[in-house]
Fold this protein.
Amino acid sequence: MDATLQLGFPLWVRLTHFFNFLFITLLIRSGIEIIGSHPKLYWRDDALPGSEWLRLTKKQMPKNQPWTAEDEITPISPVVALPGQNNLGLGRHWHFWGVSGWVLTGFIYIVLLFGTPQWRRLVPTSWDILPATWQAIVAYAHFRLPLDGNPFNGIQQLTYFFVILILSPLQIVTGIMMSPALAARFPWFSGIFGGRQAARSLHFIGLILFVGFIVIHISLVVAHGFALEMAKIVLGGESHSHVLAVTIGLIGIAGVIAFHFWGTWYSLSFPFRAKRLLELGVDPLQRFLFHHWDSRQNYEHVSAYARVNGHPPRNETYERLAATNFKDWRLELSGMAAKKLSLSLDDLRQMPRQTQTTLHICIQGWSYFAQWTGVPVSAIMDKCDLLPNARFLVFHTLDEKWERPGHGYYYEVIDLEIARLSQTILAYEMNGQPLPVPYGAPLRLRVENQLGYKMAKWINRIEFVDTFEHIGKGQGGWRDDVLHYYPSDAGI
Protein backbone atom coordinates (compact mmCIF):
# COMPACT_ATOMS: atom_id res chain seq x y z
CA MET A 1 0.00 0.00 0.00
CA ASP A 2 1.25 3.49 -0.95
CA ALA A 3 2.58 5.41 2.06
CA THR A 4 0.28 8.32 1.16
CA LEU A 5 -2.75 6.07 1.52
CA GLN A 6 -1.60 4.83 4.91
CA LEU A 7 -1.72 8.40 6.25
CA GLY A 8 -5.52 8.40 6.09
CA PHE A 9 -8.09 10.45 4.22
CA PRO A 10 -6.98 13.91 3.06
CA LEU A 11 -9.07 16.99 3.80
CA TRP A 12 -10.51 17.21 0.26
CA VAL A 13 -11.92 13.68 0.56
CA ARG A 14 -13.62 14.56 3.84
CA LEU A 15 -15.04 17.87 2.58
CA THR A 16 -16.39 16.42 -0.66
CA HIS A 17 -17.87 13.55 1.37
CA PHE A 18 -19.81 16.08 3.47
CA PHE A 19 -21.06 18.16 0.53
CA ASN A 20 -21.98 15.01 -1.37
CA PHE A 21 -24.12 13.99 1.63
CA LEU A 22 -25.84 17.38 1.59
CA PHE A 23 -26.54 17.52 -2.13
CA ILE A 24 -27.51 13.86 -2.62
CA THR A 25 -30.12 14.08 0.16
CA LEU A 26 -31.54 17.23 -1.46
CA LEU A 27 -31.66 15.39 -4.79
CA ILE A 28 -33.44 12.40 -3.27
CA ARG A 29 -36.13 14.44 -1.50
CA SER A 30 -36.74 16.77 -4.46
CA GLY A 31 -36.77 13.73 -6.76
CA ILE A 32 -39.55 12.24 -4.65
CA GLU A 33 -41.48 15.51 -5.06
CA ILE A 34 -41.07 15.27 -8.84
CA ILE A 35 -42.16 11.64 -9.07
CA GLY A 36 -45.32 12.50 -7.11
CA SER A 37 -46.53 14.68 -9.99
CA HIS A 38 -46.84 11.54 -12.15
CA PRO A 39 -46.18 8.46 -10.00
CA LYS A 40 -46.11 6.00 -12.88
CA LEU A 41 -43.14 4.66 -14.82
CA TYR A 42 -42.99 3.38 -18.40
CA TRP A 43 -40.50 1.92 -20.86
CA ARG A 44 -42.10 3.41 -24.00
CA ASP A 45 -42.50 7.10 -24.82
CA ASP A 46 -46.20 6.68 -25.63
CA ALA A 47 -46.78 6.43 -21.85
CA LEU A 48 -50.18 4.83 -22.51
CA PRO A 49 -52.44 4.55 -19.45
CA GLY A 50 -52.18 1.00 -18.16
CA SER A 51 -48.78 0.37 -19.77
CA GLU A 52 -46.78 1.49 -16.73
CA TRP A 53 -44.40 -1.09 -15.26
CA LEU A 54 -44.57 0.54 -11.83
CA ARG A 55 -47.39 2.43 -10.11
CA LEU A 56 -46.65 4.40 -6.97
CA THR A 57 -50.23 5.49 -6.41
CA LYS A 58 -53.55 3.90 -5.56
CA LYS A 59 -55.46 6.43 -7.64
CA GLN A 60 -57.62 5.01 -10.41
CA MET A 61 -58.75 7.22 -13.27
CA PRO A 62 -62.52 7.24 -13.98
CA LYS A 63 -63.60 5.16 -16.97
CA ASN A 64 -66.87 6.91 -17.79
CA GLN A 65 -65.92 10.58 -17.54
CA PRO A 66 -63.11 12.84 -18.80
CA TRP A 67 -59.99 13.21 -16.69
CA THR A 68 -56.73 15.11 -17.05
CA ALA A 69 -53.13 14.37 -16.17
CA GLU A 70 -53.46 16.66 -13.17
CA ASP A 71 -55.90 14.15 -11.67
CA GLU A 72 -53.05 11.62 -11.55
CA ILE A 73 -50.95 13.76 -9.19
CA THR A 74 -50.25 12.24 -5.76
CA PRO A 75 -49.19 14.94 -3.27
CA ILE A 76 -46.41 13.74 -0.96
CA SER A 77 -45.77 14.78 2.62
CA PRO A 78 -43.01 17.37 3.30
CA VAL A 79 -41.55 14.85 5.72
CA VAL A 80 -40.37 12.87 2.70
CA ALA A 81 -40.49 15.23 -0.29
CA LEU A 82 -38.88 18.63 -0.83
CA PRO A 83 -40.86 20.77 -0.44
CA GLY A 84 -43.89 18.43 -0.57
CA GLN A 85 -47.62 19.17 -0.85
CA ASN A 86 -47.70 19.06 -4.66
CA ASN A 87 -45.13 21.74 -5.45
CA LEU A 88 -43.63 20.38 -8.66
CA GLY A 89 -42.16 23.72 -9.74
CA LEU A 90 -40.23 24.23 -6.51
CA GLY A 91 -39.32 20.55 -6.40
CA ARG A 92 -37.64 20.87 -9.78
CA HIS A 93 -35.92 24.09 -8.71
CA TRP A 94 -34.48 22.28 -5.69
CA HIS A 95 -33.51 19.34 -7.89
CA PHE A 96 -31.58 21.52 -10.35
CA TRP A 97 -29.98 23.48 -7.52
CA GLY A 98 -28.97 20.22 -5.82
CA VAL A 99 -27.66 18.60 -9.00
CA SER A 100 -25.54 21.68 -9.77
CA GLY A 101 -23.84 21.39 -6.38
CA TRP A 102 -23.58 17.60 -6.60
CA VAL A 103 -21.99 17.63 -10.05
CA LEU A 104 -19.54 20.38 -9.04
CA THR A 105 -18.60 18.44 -5.90
CA GLY A 106 -18.22 15.26 -7.91
CA PHE A 107 -16.06 16.96 -10.53
CA ILE A 108 -13.70 18.31 -7.88
CA TYR A 109 -13.58 14.88 -6.23
CA ILE A 110 -12.81 13.01 -9.47
CA VAL A 111 -10.08 15.47 -10.50
CA LEU A 112 -8.36 15.18 -7.12
CA LEU A 113 -8.98 11.44 -6.92
CA PHE A 114 -7.14 10.64 -10.14
CA GLY A 115 -4.58 13.37 -9.55
CA THR A 116 -3.40 11.58 -6.41
CA PRO A 117 -2.81 7.95 -5.34
CA GLN A 118 -6.26 7.98 -3.69
CA TRP A 119 -7.80 6.36 -6.79
CA ARG A 120 -6.26 3.03 -5.73
CA ARG A 121 -8.69 2.88 -2.83
CA LEU A 122 -11.64 2.74 -5.24
CA VAL A 123 -10.39 1.16 -8.44
CA PRO A 124 -9.51 -2.55 -8.20
CA THR A 125 -6.04 -3.24 -9.57
CA SER A 126 -5.96 -7.01 -9.08
CA TRP A 127 -8.24 -10.02 -9.52
CA ASP A 128 -7.63 -10.63 -5.83
CA ILE A 129 -10.61 -8.35 -5.30
CA LEU A 130 -12.96 -11.22 -6.20
CA PRO A 131 -12.04 -13.69 -3.42
CA ALA A 132 -11.77 -10.76 -1.01
CA THR A 133 -15.28 -9.68 -1.94
CA TRP A 134 -16.62 -13.20 -1.46
CA GLN A 135 -15.00 -13.45 1.97
CA ALA A 136 -16.61 -10.15 2.96
CA ILE A 137 -20.03 -11.31 1.73
CA VAL A 138 -19.75 -14.54 3.71
CA ALA A 139 -18.72 -12.63 6.82
CA TYR A 140 -21.64 -10.20 6.60
CA ALA A 141 -24.04 -13.08 5.89
CA HIS A 142 -22.95 -14.65 9.18
CA PHE A 143 -23.30 -11.28 10.97
CA ARG A 144 -19.56 -11.00 11.40
CA LEU A 145 -17.32 -8.13 10.41
CA PRO A 146 -14.83 -9.05 7.68
CA LEU A 147 -11.16 -8.32 8.04
CA ASP A 148 -10.62 -4.68 7.17
CA GLY A 149 -8.85 -3.81 3.94
CA ASN A 150 -6.75 -0.71 3.34
CA PRO A 151 -9.08 0.93 4.22
CA PHE A 152 -11.94 -0.96 2.53
CA ASN A 153 -12.71 -4.65 2.32
CA GLY A 154 -13.47 -6.14 -1.09
CA ILE A 155 -17.21 -5.58 -1.18
CA GLN A 156 -16.81 -2.00 0.05
CA GLN A 157 -14.27 -1.21 -2.65
CA LEU A 158 -16.44 -2.65 -5.43
CA THR A 159 -19.53 -0.89 -4.07
CA TYR A 160 -17.81 2.51 -3.92
CA PHE A 161 -16.39 1.92 -7.40
CA PHE A 162 -19.87 1.16 -8.73
CA VAL A 163 -21.61 4.06 -6.99
CA ILE A 164 -19.01 6.71 -7.82
CA LEU A 165 -17.79 5.68 -11.26
CA ILE A 166 -20.81 3.88 -12.75
CA LEU A 167 -24.08 4.76 -11.00
CA SER A 168 -23.36 8.48 -10.61
CA PRO A 169 -22.48 9.04 -14.30
CA LEU A 170 -25.53 6.97 -15.26
CA GLN A 171 -27.75 9.27 -13.16
CA ILE A 172 -26.26 12.32 -14.85
CA VAL A 173 -26.73 10.90 -18.34
CA THR A 174 -30.31 9.69 -17.78
CA GLY A 175 -31.16 13.04 -16.18
CA ILE A 176 -29.89 14.94 -19.21
CA MET A 177 -31.73 12.54 -21.53
CA MET A 178 -35.04 13.80 -20.11
CA SER A 179 -34.39 17.33 -21.39
CA PRO A 180 -36.93 18.20 -24.13
CA ALA A 181 -34.40 20.53 -25.74
CA LEU A 182 -31.82 17.76 -25.96
CA ALA A 183 -34.37 15.20 -27.15
CA ALA A 184 -35.59 17.64 -29.81
CA ARG A 185 -32.12 18.49 -31.13
CA PHE A 186 -30.66 14.97 -30.86
CA PRO A 187 -33.60 12.51 -30.96
CA TRP A 188 -31.16 9.60 -31.21
CA PHE A 189 -29.53 10.39 -27.86
CA SER A 190 -32.36 9.36 -25.54
CA GLY A 191 -32.91 6.42 -27.87
CA ILE A 192 -29.64 4.90 -26.62
CA PHE A 193 -31.57 3.56 -23.62
CA GLY A 194 -34.87 3.18 -25.46
CA GLY A 195 -36.34 6.67 -25.16
CA ARG A 196 -37.17 9.34 -22.63
CA GLN A 197 -39.47 7.16 -20.53
CA ALA A 198 -36.83 4.44 -20.34
CA ALA A 199 -34.33 7.09 -19.18
CA ARG A 200 -36.85 8.27 -16.58
CA SER A 201 -37.33 4.70 -15.34
CA LEU A 202 -33.58 4.10 -15.13
CA HIS A 203 -33.18 7.42 -13.32
CA PHE A 204 -35.76 6.31 -10.75
CA ILE A 205 -34.04 2.94 -10.32
CA GLY A 206 -30.81 4.86 -9.75
CA LEU A 207 -32.52 6.89 -7.03
CA ILE A 208 -33.61 3.67 -5.30
CA LEU A 209 -30.05 2.32 -5.51
CA PHE A 210 -28.70 5.50 -3.96
CA VAL A 211 -31.22 5.31 -1.11
CA GLY A 212 -30.31 1.65 -0.54
CA PHE A 213 -26.60 2.48 -0.61
CA ILE A 214 -27.02 5.26 1.96
CA VAL A 215 -29.04 3.05 4.30
CA ILE A 216 -26.52 0.18 4.10
CA HIS A 217 -23.57 2.58 4.31
CA ILE A 218 -24.87 4.16 7.53
CA SER A 219 -25.69 0.72 8.97
CA LEU A 220 -22.12 -0.48 8.33
CA VAL A 221 -20.67 2.68 9.84
CA VAL A 222 -22.56 1.83 13.03
CA ALA A 223 -21.67 -1.88 12.81
CA HIS A 224 -17.94 -1.22 12.33
CA GLY A 225 -17.91 1.18 15.26
CA PHE A 226 -19.50 4.59 14.97
CA ALA A 227 -16.78 6.50 16.81
CA LEU A 228 -14.01 4.71 14.90
CA GLU A 229 -15.60 5.38 11.51
CA MET A 230 -16.35 9.00 12.38
CA ALA A 231 -12.69 9.49 13.22
CA LYS A 232 -11.85 8.35 9.66
CA ILE A 233 -14.64 10.34 8.00
CA VAL A 234 -14.23 13.58 9.95
CA LEU A 235 -10.60 13.78 11.04
CA GLY A 236 -8.98 11.53 8.45
CA GLY A 237 -7.82 8.56 10.53
CA GLU A 238 -8.83 6.24 13.34
CA SER A 239 -5.94 7.40 15.55
CA HIS A 240 -7.49 10.82 16.02
CA SER A 241 -9.77 11.77 18.93
CA HIS A 242 -12.97 9.77 18.67
CA VAL A 243 -14.85 12.17 20.93
CA LEU A 244 -13.91 15.18 18.80
CA ALA A 245 -14.73 13.31 15.60
CA VAL A 246 -18.16 12.25 16.84
CA THR A 247 -18.91 15.78 18.06
CA ILE A 248 -17.95 17.40 14.75
CA GLY A 249 -19.68 14.68 12.76
CA LEU A 250 -22.95 15.01 14.65
CA ILE A 251 -22.83 18.79 14.29
CA GLY A 252 -22.35 18.37 10.53
CA ILE A 253 -25.25 15.90 10.27
CA ALA A 254 -27.43 18.20 12.37
CA GLY A 255 -26.51 21.07 10.05
CA VAL A 256 -27.65 19.12 6.98
CA ILE A 257 -30.90 18.14 8.70
CA ALA A 258 -31.46 21.75 9.78
CA PHE A 259 -30.90 22.91 6.20
CA HIS A 260 -33.54 20.44 5.00
CA PHE A 261 -36.00 21.71 7.61
CA TRP A 262 -35.30 25.32 6.69
CA GLY A 263 -35.52 24.64 2.94
CA THR A 264 -38.85 22.86 3.33
CA TRP A 265 -40.32 25.51 5.62
CA TYR A 266 -39.08 28.44 3.54
CA SER A 267 -40.33 26.92 0.28
CA LEU A 268 -43.81 26.27 1.66
CA SER A 269 -44.04 29.59 3.52
CA PHE A 270 -42.48 31.87 0.90
CA PRO A 271 -42.67 30.00 -2.43
CA PHE A 272 -42.05 33.05 -4.62
CA ARG A 273 -38.92 34.06 -2.69
CA ALA A 274 -37.67 30.47 -2.69
CA LYS A 275 -38.18 30.27 -6.45
CA ARG A 276 -36.18 33.44 -7.05
CA LEU A 277 -33.35 32.31 -4.76
CA LEU A 278 -33.10 28.86 -6.33
CA GLU A 279 -32.98 30.37 -9.81
CA LEU A 280 -29.82 32.35 -9.04
CA GLY A 281 -27.04 30.90 -11.13
CA VAL A 282 -29.09 27.85 -12.14
CA ASP A 283 -31.50 29.53 -14.57
CA PRO A 284 -28.72 31.26 -16.58
CA LEU A 285 -26.89 27.92 -16.73
CA GLN A 286 -29.99 26.15 -18.09
CA ARG A 287 -30.52 28.85 -20.71
CA PHE A 288 -26.85 28.71 -21.74
CA LEU A 289 -26.91 24.93 -22.15
CA PHE A 290 -30.35 24.23 -23.64
CA HIS A 291 -32.05 27.38 -24.89
CA HIS A 292 -30.54 27.69 -28.36
CA TRP A 293 -31.12 24.21 -29.79
CA ASP A 294 -33.54 23.92 -32.69
CA SER A 295 -35.80 20.88 -32.90
CA ARG A 296 -35.02 18.25 -35.54
CA GLN A 297 -37.78 15.78 -34.75
CA ASN A 298 -39.30 13.78 -37.56
CA TYR A 299 -41.05 10.75 -36.11
CA GLU A 300 -43.34 8.46 -38.09
CA HIS A 301 -45.17 7.08 -35.07
CA VAL A 302 -48.30 8.64 -33.52
CA SER A 303 -49.42 7.49 -30.06
CA ALA A 304 -52.71 5.65 -29.75
CA TYR A 305 -53.66 7.93 -26.85
CA ALA A 306 -52.57 11.44 -25.89
CA ARG A 307 -53.13 12.68 -22.36
CA VAL A 308 -54.98 15.94 -21.80
CA ASN A 309 -53.63 18.47 -19.33
CA GLY A 310 -56.07 21.12 -18.17
CA HIS A 311 -59.79 21.54 -18.74
CA PRO A 312 -61.21 23.56 -21.66
CA PRO A 313 -62.48 27.09 -20.96
CA ARG A 314 -66.04 27.47 -19.67
CA ASN A 315 -66.52 31.17 -20.29
CA GLU A 316 -69.33 32.42 -22.50
CA THR A 317 -66.99 33.81 -25.17
CA TYR A 318 -65.20 30.51 -25.76
CA GLU A 319 -68.35 28.41 -25.64
CA ARG A 320 -70.02 30.71 -28.20
CA LEU A 321 -67.01 30.46 -30.54
CA ALA A 322 -66.85 26.68 -30.20
CA ALA A 323 -70.57 26.37 -30.94
CA THR A 324 -70.01 27.98 -34.37
CA ASN A 325 -66.89 25.90 -35.08
CA PHE A 326 -64.78 29.03 -34.43
CA LYS A 327 -66.11 30.79 -37.52
CA ASP A 328 -65.99 34.19 -35.74
CA TRP A 329 -62.72 33.52 -33.87
CA ARG A 330 -59.83 35.88 -34.56
CA LEU A 331 -56.14 35.91 -33.67
CA GLU A 332 -55.29 39.46 -32.65
CA LEU A 333 -51.69 40.61 -33.14
CA SER A 334 -50.69 43.69 -31.20
CA GLY A 335 -47.90 45.40 -29.34
CA MET A 336 -44.52 46.36 -30.78
CA ALA A 337 -45.33 45.73 -34.43
CA ALA A 338 -45.74 48.10 -37.34
CA LYS A 339 -48.81 46.16 -38.49
CA LYS A 340 -51.62 45.24 -36.11
CA LEU A 341 -53.46 42.26 -37.61
CA SER A 342 -56.65 40.30 -36.95
CA LEU A 343 -56.51 36.85 -38.57
CA SER A 344 -59.22 34.21 -38.94
CA LEU A 345 -58.59 30.47 -39.11
CA ASP A 346 -59.01 30.68 -42.89
CA ASP A 347 -56.38 33.44 -42.99
CA LEU A 348 -53.96 31.22 -41.08
CA ARG A 349 -54.64 28.29 -43.41
CA GLN A 350 -53.69 30.49 -46.36
CA MET A 351 -50.26 31.14 -44.85
CA PRO A 352 -47.24 28.77 -45.14
CA ARG A 353 -48.29 25.35 -43.87
CA GLN A 354 -46.01 23.10 -41.83
CA THR A 355 -46.52 19.55 -40.52
CA GLN A 356 -44.31 17.89 -37.92
CA THR A 357 -44.55 14.70 -35.87
CA THR A 358 -42.93 15.24 -32.49
CA LEU A 359 -42.69 13.99 -28.92
CA HIS A 360 -44.74 16.01 -26.45
CA ILE A 361 -43.04 16.04 -23.04
CA CYS A 362 -45.01 17.20 -20.01
CA ILE A 363 -43.25 18.63 -16.96
CA GLN A 364 -45.11 16.02 -14.89
CA GLY A 365 -43.18 13.26 -16.64
CA TRP A 366 -45.53 11.68 -19.21
CA SER A 367 -45.15 11.97 -22.97
CA TYR A 368 -46.78 11.07 -26.30
CA PHE A 369 -46.18 11.30 -30.05
CA ALA A 370 -48.47 13.42 -32.21
CA GLN A 371 -48.55 15.10 -35.60
CA TRP A 372 -49.17 18.84 -35.66
CA THR A 373 -50.00 21.06 -38.62
CA GLY A 374 -50.04 24.84 -38.56
CA VAL A 375 -48.28 28.03 -39.51
CA PRO A 376 -44.69 28.84 -38.44
CA VAL A 377 -44.64 31.61 -35.83
CA SER A 378 -41.79 33.21 -37.79
CA ALA A 379 -44.16 33.70 -40.77
CA ILE A 380 -46.63 35.57 -38.57
CA MET A 381 -43.84 37.69 -37.11
CA ASP A 382 -42.66 38.62 -40.60
CA LYS A 383 -46.20 39.56 -41.57
CA CYS A 384 -46.46 41.91 -38.58
CA ASP A 385 -43.15 43.72 -39.23
CA LEU A 386 -41.86 43.81 -35.65
CA LEU A 387 -40.28 46.94 -34.20
CA PRO A 388 -36.55 46.78 -33.31
CA ASN A 389 -37.12 46.77 -29.55
CA ALA A 390 -39.54 43.80 -29.57
CA ARG A 391 -37.96 40.92 -27.62
CA PHE A 392 -40.75 38.60 -26.44
CA LEU A 393 -44.04 37.13 -27.62
CA VAL A 394 -46.87 36.89 -25.10
CA PHE A 395 -49.53 34.32 -26.00
CA HIS A 396 -52.85 35.28 -24.43
CA THR A 397 -55.62 32.70 -24.27
CA LEU A 398 -59.33 32.24 -23.64
CA ASP A 399 -58.47 29.88 -20.76
CA GLU A 400 -59.79 31.57 -17.63
CA LYS A 401 -58.44 28.74 -15.39
CA TRP A 402 -61.83 28.21 -13.81
CA GLU A 403 -60.28 25.41 -11.72
CA ARG A 404 -58.28 28.10 -9.85
CA PRO A 405 -60.55 31.15 -9.62
CA GLY A 406 -58.90 34.47 -8.97
CA HIS A 407 -55.62 33.68 -10.74
CA GLY A 408 -56.43 35.24 -14.11
CA TYR A 409 -56.24 33.95 -17.67
CA TYR A 410 -53.54 31.57 -18.85
CA TYR A 411 -50.69 33.10 -20.82
CA GLU A 412 -47.19 32.12 -21.89
CA VAL A 413 -44.04 33.98 -22.95
CA ILE A 414 -41.27 32.97 -25.34
CA ASP A 415 -38.46 35.09 -26.72
CA LEU A 416 -37.83 35.91 -30.38
CA GLU A 417 -35.05 33.34 -30.69
CA ILE A 418 -37.35 30.49 -29.65
CA ALA A 419 -40.18 31.91 -31.78
CA ARG A 420 -38.04 31.79 -34.93
CA LEU A 421 -36.94 28.17 -34.51
CA SER A 422 -38.01 25.94 -37.38
CA GLN A 423 -40.51 23.80 -35.42
CA THR A 424 -42.15 26.60 -33.43
CA ILE A 425 -45.62 26.76 -34.96
CA LEU A 426 -49.21 27.69 -34.20
CA ALA A 427 -51.07 24.43 -34.74
CA TYR A 428 -54.67 24.21 -35.97
CA GLU A 429 -54.59 20.47 -36.76
CA MET A 430 -53.63 17.39 -34.73
CA ASN A 431 -53.03 14.01 -36.32
CA GLY A 432 -54.54 15.14 -39.62
CA GLN A 433 -57.79 16.45 -38.08
CA PRO A 434 -58.93 19.88 -36.89
CA LEU A 435 -57.45 20.55 -33.47
CA PRO A 436 -59.80 19.05 -30.84
CA VAL A 437 -61.12 21.29 -28.07
CA PRO A 438 -59.34 19.41 -25.22
CA TYR A 439 -56.00 19.94 -27.00
CA GLY A 440 -56.42 23.67 -27.57
CA ALA A 441 -58.85 24.39 -30.44
CA PRO A 442 -58.85 26.47 -32.44
CA LEU A 443 -55.15 27.30 -32.06
CA ARG A 444 -52.29 26.23 -29.82
CA LEU A 445 -48.59 26.89 -29.64
CA ARG A 446 -46.03 24.17 -30.37
CA VAL A 447 -42.50 24.84 -29.11
CA GLU A 448 -40.84 21.47 -29.63
CA ASN A 449 -37.68 22.14 -27.59
CA GLN A 450 -39.65 23.08 -24.45
CA LEU A 451 -41.76 21.33 -21.84
CA GLY A 452 -45.44 21.00 -22.67
CA TYR A 453 -46.78 23.68 -20.31
CA LYS A 454 -45.11 26.38 -22.45
CA MET A 455 -47.35 25.39 -25.39
CA ALA A 456 -50.36 27.56 -24.62
CA LYS A 457 -53.76 26.29 -25.78
CA TRP A 458 -56.94 28.17 -26.80
CA ILE A 459 -54.90 31.16 -28.03
CA ASN A 460 -56.69 34.32 -29.20
CA ARG A 461 -54.01 37.05 -29.04
CA ILE A 462 -50.27 37.50 -29.48
CA GLU A 463 -48.62 40.59 -27.99
CA PHE A 464 -45.09 41.65 -28.94
CA VAL A 465 -43.29 43.27 -26.00
CA ASP A 466 -39.83 44.35 -24.86
CA THR A 467 -40.37 42.97 -21.34
CA PHE A 468 -42.94 40.76 -19.60
CA GLU A 469 -42.46 42.21 -16.12
CA HIS A 470 -45.83 44.02 -16.31
CA ILE A 471 -47.79 40.93 -17.38
CA GLY A 472 -49.30 38.74 -14.69
CA LYS A 473 -46.76 38.57 -11.89
CA GLY A 474 -43.93 39.11 -14.31
CA GLN A 475 -42.58 35.56 -14.20
CA GLY A 476 -43.05 34.65 -17.86
CA GLY A 477 -46.22 32.59 -17.76
CA TRP A 478 -49.29 31.61 -15.75
CA ARG A 479 -47.68 28.52 -14.27
CA ASP A 480 -44.53 30.49 -13.48
CA ASP A 481 -46.66 33.04 -11.63
CA VAL A 482 -48.96 30.66 -9.79
CA LEU A 483 -47.16 27.31 -9.58
CA HIS A 484 -43.57 28.64 -9.45
CA TYR A 485 -42.27 27.03 -12.63
CA TYR A 486 -39.52 28.60 -14.77
CA PRO A 487 -39.28 32.25 -15.86
CA SER A 488 -39.11 32.06 -19.68
CA ASP A 489 -37.35 28.84 -20.68
CA ALA A 490 -38.31 25.20 -20.09
CA GLY A 491 -35.75 23.24 -22.07
CA ILE A 492 -35.05 20.80 -19.24
Observations:
- The radius of gyration is 26 Å.
